[in-house]
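A quick word before the example. In earlier lectures we treated sequence and structure as two separate objects. From today on, think of them as two lines of the same record. Here is TlpA family protein disulfide reductase written that way.
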Amino acid sequence: MKLFKNQWSNIIFIVVILAMIIPQTRKPIQIFVNKLISFAPSVNDEEDREKIANYNWVLEDSREKRVEFEEFKNEVVILNFWATWCPPCIAEMPSFQELYEDYGEKVTFLFVSSEHHETTDGFMKRKRFSLPSYKMLTKAPEPMIGKTLPTTYVIAKDGSIVVDKVGAADWNSDSFRKTLDKLLAE
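And the structure line, produced from the sequence above:
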């Protein structure tokens, strides 16, 4: 009987390994695991918050309209560097969508990708997301250079970076909503 149990555990282990090797199953598994391990992002202590060096940054929206980052000065901004091929990015998108539905009129959401607009627009349509997607035309200001995907910054009205999160998070959590409400009240 014990020998039979060991065989089942070996079979399950082999199936999991094969599922991670096969490209068609690897991405959905990675997305699922990232959703499972995502927690609310932590807020930087006030004394540790960096400020945006400058607002000289040019983006392009999905209609290929030039957008100056300067327009968002004195606003609460959620800035997310992402890609359509990135499993952690995809895992956190549903929580961003829920947050966007409630805060889209109060907070500026910027989802920045280096991919072509056709790629990001197609992804958003397939997934039924209405998140505003942008492409960088110039380099992001210091210290907001997202080298790892996803990287998300939450910027207060005074330009200080309240959250700088690398990796997936649950952006629709009660604790993060309280953080946003506090930032909007300032």
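Notice the following. The longest strand covers residues 108-113. We will return to this example when we discuss secondary structure assignment.
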